[in-house]
Structure formats: structure tokens, C-alpha cells
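Section 3.1: Structural characterization of target chains.
Under the original work plan, the team committed to producing a structural model for every single-chain target entering the pipeline before any wet-lab resources were allocated. The record below documents one such target. The sequence was received from the expression subgroup and is listed exactly as submitted; it comprises 102 residues.
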Amino acid sequence: MSASVNKKDIVSLIFEKIKQENPEEKITKKEIEMIVDSTVDVLCDSLKQGKKVSLIGFGSFTVKERKATLKTNPKDPSKKIKVPAKKLVRFKASDKLNDSIN
């Protein structure tokens, strides 16, 4: 596996973990992919509605709004440019996650 993990890798890792822990389980990679896709859809929809998403032991996602500001134009420092307001997703890792990687 490469230095990063993509959706295909996640599906394969979940499939292997389920098979290792419960060999009789009859689940396909396609079903796991549908579950992963549905999970991502639910997380995105919740964030779009302005809800906080918490996954105990992993972390929480919130939407923060960055206000519109005036910034100095890097190409022409004598001029200002307006940076519009926008929403950003923030992630705060849980203590359990932080502890597990340290």
C-alpha cells in the first residue's frame, strides 16, 4: 500500500478486518463500498445543515464561517482585494486518536 490511503484501500481494509474477525460473515466489497459512500454522504449532508458531526474515539467535524476581509494584493501591494466570506470544515481529533498515533 502507498503512503496514502484512498477509498478503495479503506474498503479493502474493512473487508479484510471483517473476514479476519468473523470468517462466516457473508459481505462483499461492493456492499462495504456502498456503506462507506453512504457514510460520507450522511456526514456531508449533516455538515451542510450546519450540524456538528462527532465520531467518538476519532474526532469531530464542524463548519466554521470565515468572514469576508480586505487583503493586500500580492501582485500589486498598493491595491486591496476583497476576499469573500466562505464556510470551511474543521476537524478536531479526539484524545484517543491523538494518543494512538503518538
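The first strand starts at residue 53 and ends at 55.
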